[in-house]
Amino acid sequence: MLVCNPYEIVIHGTTSKGKTFRPSDWAERLCGILSSFDKGNRLSYHEWVRPMLVDKVRCVAVDKKLEEINPPMFRFLMDFAADNDLRVMDCKALLDERSEQQAQADAEPERVLLARAIEEKQAAERAEDTQASVPSVLREIETGETAVAFAALSVLRPMLTDVNRFVEQVNSLQRSEGYRLLGVFEEGKTNAVAVCGFREETNLVSGRHIHIDDVVTIPQSRGKGYAARLLAQVRRIAEDAGIQQIHIDSNVGSERAQAHRLYFENGFEISAHHFVLKVE
C-alpha cells in the first residue's frame, strides 16, 4: 500500500514519455545527499526527504516544509527532476492517478494492454535515441553558478551532502587557490551533466603544471564522450598557457577501471605511486 501524506511532493521515477529513470538506485543516491548516520552508525535519511517505491518504480518523497527550511536544497531537488524530465506531483495526485490506472487496467481487454505496451516501448526507444543526440555545450562554470556542478560532483564525491557547504568551500577556499570548473550542459538542463575541476600548480618535481582534481559524468549521460571533451578542453587551456604537463590521480580499485581506460585513451600514462599517511 502506498503511504504518503498531503504535505509531500513526489519525484516519480519515470519521465514524461513513460521511460523508467536510471540508474536503479537513483532515489537512494538523491536522498543520500541529505542523509546522516545515527548513534548506531546506521544510515538515516533526512526527515523531509525519503525514497519510496510506487508500483515497483523508485521515487523520492519531498516534504514541502523543506522549501522553507532549506530553499537551496529544495530548488536543487526540483531542478534535478526538471533536468531529467522526471514527473513531479503531490501525493494526492499520485494516489488519484494510481486509482485511475487500476480502473483502466481492470476494464481493458488483454489485447489492448499488449498494444499499449508495444506503443510505450517504441516511444521509449525513440526518446532514448533523441536523448543520445541532445545538443550540449561545454563552458567554464563561474563563481556565481558553482551550485550547478554539485549534482555531478556529488556522484563522484559521496561525502558532498550539502550544496551550501559545497558552494562555500569551492568559492571561498578552492577558487582562491586557483581551482576552476568546466561543465558540459545539455540543452534544457540547469545542472551540468559532466564536470571537471582542475587547478594550476608549481612545484620542484614537475614545475608549472595543471592538476585535475575531479572528472565525472552523471550516470544517465555517460557514453556520449563528455569526459573526453572535458579532458581535451583542459589540454587546450594548458597549451594556451604554455603549460607542458597535466596530472591526475586515480584510485586503483577495479571499480575505477573505466576511469583508467579514459585516461589512457586520452594520452595519460602512469608515472608514480601516490602514498597517503592518515594522521589521527
Explained architecture:
- The chain is an alpha+beta fold and 280 residues long.
- It has two domains: 8-102, Alpha-Beta Plaits (2-Layer Sandwich), CATH 3.30.70.2340; 136-265, Aminopeptidase, CATH 3.40.630.
- 39% of the residues lie in helices and 24% in strands.
- The protein has nine helices and eleven strands.
- It has helices spanning 26-32, 66-69, 71-83, 91-107, 110-132, 150-156, 163-174, 226-241, 257-265, and strands at 8-15, 36-37, 43-44, 49-54, 57-63, 86-90, 136-141, 180-186, 194-203, 207-217, 246-248.
- The strands form three sheets. Strands 7-8-9-10-11 form a five-stranded mixed sheet.
- 24% of the residues are buried.
- The model has no long low-confidence stretch (mean pLDDT 83).
Key features of this structure:
single chain; 280 residues; alpha+beta; Alpha-Beta Plaits; Aminopeptidase; 2 domains; five-stranded mixed β-sheet; four-stranded antiparallel β-sheet; 11 strands; globular; Acyl_CoA_acyltransferase
Which CATH class of the largest domain applies here? Alpha Beta
CATH topology of the largest domain: Aminopeptidase
Helix content: 25-40%
The counted number of beta strands is 11
* Strand line-up of the largest beta sheet: 7-8-9-10-11
On the 0 to 100 scale, the average pLDDT is: 83
Low-confidence stretches: none
Principal-axes geometry comes out as: globular
Mind summarizing the main beta sheet? 5 strands, mixed
Tell me the number of helical segments per DSSP (H or I, 4 or more residues long). 9
Give the number of domains: 2
Broad structural category: alpha+beta
CATH architecture of the largest domain: 3-Layer(aba) Sandwich
Strand content: 15-25%
Determine the CATH superfamily of the largest domain: Gcn5-related N-acetyltransferase (GNAT)
Radius of gyration: 22 Å
Distance between the termini: 48 Å
Q: Could you spell the SSE succession in H and E letters?
A: EHEEEEHHEHHEHHEEEHEH
Pfam family, one: Acetyltransf_1
Organism: Uruburuella testudinis
InterPro entries: Acyl_CoA_acyltransferase, DUF3579, GNAT_dom
Domain N-acetyltransferase: 136-280
